[in-house]
């Protein structure tokens, strides 16, 4: 026993001794290092950014230096005895900070916690660091009310709290910090008015309060900020006017109050801001005239007053703004002529004045004295010709003149304008030759010259436009000429439209045509045959060759194209038969071959007979009967007699069957007689036709995921139409209410809504029959790589469909379940909203019984209003989901917990868009719409009409 005890005693003694040796360095470490180690232990460091925050291998108690001074992010004084700076920015840190973690750092001058994921309340202990000169907590997830006590930091110069999730009122006591020069509370959820105390800052240079939920009137006291050079307070929802007192901010260089719900006139006192370089007041409800006095702000470089209710002319005094680069007054009610002096502004590069009431000619020297890059004067009443010097400085990229009354020939300066990317001059009265030298315009991608009076044909050098995607010269009836041989072989060409242009000559061959989606050549004099090389156009969706002189057979290669949806070959001289492959095409929606010389049978089960008129030798279901193999003409008298015999026998059999099973039907079903309602686009089927179609395949039916809580399956109706069938059940007392909404859903017709074709119902349930679209839903394709233009198209299409339901249906129809699963794509990849109204139907059925609802109409009205708000919120979520390929599927959390700059950067990276790319501003505006739509308070969200106006406004800019 004693032998065992002795080694045990020695071992225990050794371990105690060893542990004391190991503890000595820890005990001798300075308290500042220990405090930082404590901080490290409490926060989340998923990227191991603080890996060098470790204890030294040796330590000396006589050493007064702070060991942490060598760590990353820690700044000390010269002899390393005080920590004066702590920079933890951009280290992917997270967690919750406690009040005690900074108590020792009383000498701290700079504290930077920015671009991390710290959350919950901002620790009040920071406000005890009274030597702080810079506090940066931007781009985090701090939430709750901003704590009081910030005024304790009486040496603070910079306070940056940008892009957090703070709520409640702005802290008034921040105004007591006399040394403060930078104040940034933008990008959170602060609410209530701007404190009038914010007008008392003594040394403030920069103030940013934009992108919150601020309301009330803008305090005129802000006009007392004589030292401020930069103010951004827009993207809130204020009341009333811009305070005229802002004209007293004598040092102001940058003022942004865009998107702020401001009304009234623009105060002329702003002209006193003689140092002002940028003024952004767009997207408000400002009215009245643009102050003439603005011509005195000589330093002005950017002026954007777009999307307001402004009247009157552009002041002649603007001719004095020699530093002006951007003039934006689009989407107002301005009128008069554009002052000639605008053309002489030496730095002007962007002139966007579309959608107003301007008239007269454009200034004759426009482009002569300045390097114009972007001109958009569309949708006005301009007359005259394009100024000859428009591209004389060789940098013009976008020329947008559509929907005016311009005349004359194209400006000579445009013929070799090598910088052009986009030209839209449709819907005018231009004449003469199309003098564009396509070989000298290497980046040209979009040309629309339709609805003019051009002549001289399509330039043969169009074949050298390697980046051309869209070309439209339709409705120039005197254009004439031919289509050159390589035109339809352009590698990037997606849309070629030359309808009603008097074009003649042989149909051109197809080369690679890998990108071609739409080809429109109707109402011309084109002759010859459709070449078999059309098989190269594997992406072709729409082909319109109607009203020409084409001959030969319809090539089977056309019928074999995988995505072909619309084919119009009417009013030609085609012969032979219709290729049978058209009958098996899953994408074909319309084939019009009327008024040709076709013969044989029609390979379709269902097609409007008018699509085949004018072909005496054609036969089939849609026209006259075809002769059978024994020579018996289907539809002859003999056949009719045989048919009557069969029908009579069938009636007898049916009568017997009905007598035998009638009792069982009513006892077992017990749900009343089935009725059928058909809407436009569905043949007049009976309820039995429909029920047999999907009940007969009950065991093997093609199930798809339930949408909106309803049972759903595919079914093939008697004529071969494939539909989606959705089952809705209801309580008998709710039937009439439900039927009313279903009828309104069926009558809702829009290009971005899936059609409700009809429904059959009894007292307890209904089966809804909807279009079955072939290209799946957005959820299945969310990770598909798309360019920005395609994503933008999807977003606008969703907005249009939803806006139609909200604002063009009376009463409004809420979608109720807007999400990626319920956005379906047709043959042209056009998005359609499906399941609209279905979830609301279910909610109506599951709501309180009529006996419990005192005012049913009022109850339903409130339910609709709430559902509309939810639709808008879900639309905002979808925007982010589309832009990030599904990575951000919860818009509310993303917007609340991520700064707008970080979010924008993520989206730009996801879409391979460089920060300098012009697309950035478009993406930024779409993200702003997502932010507005996902605001916490429903009343703060825009209507779908307003949301559509915001997102679709981008397109009009060209």
From TrEMBL:
Q: Which GO terms describe its biological process?
A: defense response to fungus; post-embryonic development
User: What InterPro entries does the record tag this protein with?
Assistant: DNA_repair-toleration, Kinase-like_dom_sf, Leu-rich_rpt, LRR_dom_sf, LRR_N_plant-typ, Prot_kinase_dom, Ser-Thr/Tyr_kinase_cat_dom, Ser/Thr_kinase_AS
Q: Organism's domain of life?
A: Eukaryota
Q: What is its main location?
A: membrane
Which GO terms of the molecular function aspect are on file? ATP binding; protein kinase activity
| Key words, A-Z | Glycoprotein, Leucine-rich repeat, Membrane, Repeat, Signal, Transmembrane, Transmembrane helix
GO CC field: membrane
Concerning SMART domains, the annotation shows: S_TKc
Q: Tell me the compartments it is located in.
A: Membrane
All copies of domain Protein kinase, residue ranges: 663-954
Check the record and name the PROSITE patterns matching this protein: LRR, PROTEIN_KINASE_DOM, PROTEIN_KINASE_ST
Q: Report the membrane topology from the UniProt record.
A: Single-pass type I membrane protein
Q: Which residues form a coiled coil?
A: none
Sequence intervals crossing the membrane: 7-27, 642-666
Which PANTHER family is this protein grouped with? DNA DAMAGE-REPAIR/TOLERATION PROTEIN DRT100, NON-SPECIFIC SERINE_THREONINE PROTEIN KINASE
Which family does this protein fall into? Belongs to the protein kinase superfamily. Ser/Thr protein kinase family.
Query: What protein name is recorded for this chain?
Result: Protein kinase domain-containing protein
Organism, as annotated = Anisodus tanguticus
